[in-house]
Amino acid sequence: MTAEKTEFRLPANTWGYEEHATEGEYKRSRIEDFQPQCERPLTVEYANGLFASIAEADNERYPRMLLSPPSAVTDPQKSPNVTDTSCTLVTALGGTTSNTVPRSGLADNGRNARTTLHPGESTPWRVIVVGQKPGDLLERNYLLLNLNSPLVLNDPAWIKPGKCMRDTTLTTANSKAIIDFAATAGLSYVELDDGWYGTIDARTGDATTVRRPGLDIDEIVRHGNEKNIGLILYVDWRQASRQRDELFSLYEKWGVKGLKLGFVQVGPATDTAWITETIQKAAEHHLLLNIHDGYRPTGYSRTYPNLMTVEGIRGNEHFPTAEHNCTLPFTRYIAGAADYTVCYYDHRLQTTHAHQLAMAVVSYSPLQWIMWYDKPTDYHHEPEIEFFQKVPTVWDKTKVINGDIGKYATVARRSGNDWFIGIINGNEARDLKVPLDFLTKGENYSAHIYADDDSVETRTKVGVQTQPVNGQAVLDVPLQPSGGEAIWIESQAVHQSPSAAAKN
Q: Count of CB atoms within 10 A of residue 162's CB?
């Protein structure tokens, strides 16, 4: 196969949230004005007020799908079935390996689109998720998972989600200090970032040997085991592609729990197949994976849940605007997990600190990087850090209470009997009502509220208060521009005596 001609014909006056490249920003555009090679999932807004998301599921050995105007990939005059292409998008397979639009504006439907399907194999699903409001799309994104094969691992108990901090200094002493902090802060992993094995040069880079002076991985693993904190290693794609089998076996012997693979190539079927095989081989050696740069999930974590998270997002390493953050729940997150890399103390943040707390709920990532640019010494006992300590990274249920793309979002997620709510706001101040009618009827809860408060005498200006709530409560949430609020709703059922619980 050298091309695919799937067409998505949309009604006139349909708008879409267009995004290009690995970590692009979103732009609301008319479909007829789209540039070639738009990323997926693509959220579209119909003139009648309905919403849909065009997505891809179960892609294991096929070129990735991008979306382009028909003129960018074919000559509409040669398509007799298409009489009006002004509001039509077509698949542009593969794209370019550099994740940029070619100067010609034409999708690379030559080498990068070529693929061979063998007996028993199929093309990926083309998926349309629909909803009456944008939050419906996020609530229904389980569809992408369900279109993948069920779990194939016999014993996945070793796959443990959690929160992670990184060590960029790459010293044994500092890694141990971060491990000590992680053990008290509700984290599960520490990552050694780029540089621990020296150069990443494609010819001379060697990820089998520690080349950072004063770095003892054996000691870090030993100390981490004492504190129940696992070690994750960064490995560049250039070494992973050449040394993969040797590295995975070696890291399992070292006691490493997972890998972050950087600059992984995407586009052609050969790249997709390499990623799929890498996920499978990592599972054979009990390694979690965080795949960075252009790769976006298509639901394969249902089959191999050691694929914990991926990038393919403009995350907090770029310090995006609040408007961008308020767009993500209704666009990129429909595809699934994304490594947003939550930051907290850095002065370059474009949002309030309560907004960043809330992103730990809004941003779904079973392996969640916390305090991306921060160090343990940045923590000065701010009371709201309790929220990072308590918030899980995997969930039993997700509910979008309200939201308007690019303006605000309220996402509630349940883990066990407790609920966590992330509320993020865009550029304009507003007051939101947050009904708690999703709480179990007749059960009492305590709501721990972490909100922006300029009267608080800390550098983060986040106030903390606790109040009793139940399913009849409606919270009033005033939001600053680029602000937010995080809420931990703690069930009181486990705190009651049996007689008291019986009365309820």
A: 21
Q: Specify the pTM.
A: 0.93
pLDDT above 50 (res 214) = yes
Alpha carbon distance 141, 155 (integer Å): 26
Range list for CATH 3.20.20.70 in the chain: 156-394
Q: Where in the chain is the domain with CATH 2.70.98.10?
A: 7-146
pLDDT of 228 higher than 70: yes
As its CATH architecture, domain 7-146 has Distorted Sandwich (2.70)
237: Cβ contacts below 8 Å, ≥ 6 apart: 261, 262, 263, 264, 265
- Asked if 15 and 34 count as a contact pair (C-beta separation under 8 A), the reply is no
Q: Which CATH architecture has domain 399-503?
A: Sandwich (2.60)
3-state secondary structure 294-361: CCCCCCHHHCCCCEEEECCCCCHHHCCCHHHHHHHHHCHHHHCCCCCCCCCCCCCCCCCHHHHHHHHH
Query: To the nearest 5 percent, what fractions of the chain are helix, strand and coil?
Result: 25, 25, 45
Is the confidence at residue 493, as pLDDT, over 70? yes
Question: Would strands 445-452 and 462-469 be described as parallel, antiparallel, or unpaired?
Answer: antiparallel
pLDDT tens-digit readout, 154-183 = 999 999 999 999 999 999 999 999 999 999
Q: Helices 269-284 and 237-254 meet at what angle, rounded to 10? A: 10
Sequence ranges of the chain with CATH classification 2.60.40.1180: 399-503
Residue 81: what pLDDT?
55
Distance CA 342, CA 499 (A): 43
Which residues have CB under 8 Å from 200's CB, separation 6+?
194, 236, 238, 239
Burial (CB count within 10 angstroms: exposed 0-12, middle 13-18, buried 19+), residue 253 = exposed
Instruction: State the burial class of residue 53 (Cβ atoms within 10 Å of its Cβ: 0-12, 13-18, 19+).
Output: buried
Q: Which of 73-82, 107-116, 229-238 has the highest mean pLDDT?
A: 229-238
Neighbour-count burial of 150, counting CB atoms closer than 10 A to its CB (0-12 exposed, 13-18 middle, 19+ buried): exposed
Is the pLDDT at 496 greater than 60? The verdict is no
Domain spanning 156-394, CATH architecture: Alpha-Beta Barrel (3.20)
β-strand pairing of 15-18 with 189-192:
unpaired
DSSP state of 64: P
Amino acid occupying residue 216: D
DSSP labels, 116-150: -PPTT--PPEEEEEEESSHHHHHHTTHHHHHTSPP
Which of these, 123, 114, 95, lies nearest to 38 by C-alpha position? 95
Name the burial class of residue 97, with classes exposed (0-12), middle (13-18) and buried (19+) by CB atoms within 10 angstroms of its CB: middle
134 upstream amide cis, omega within 30 of 0: no
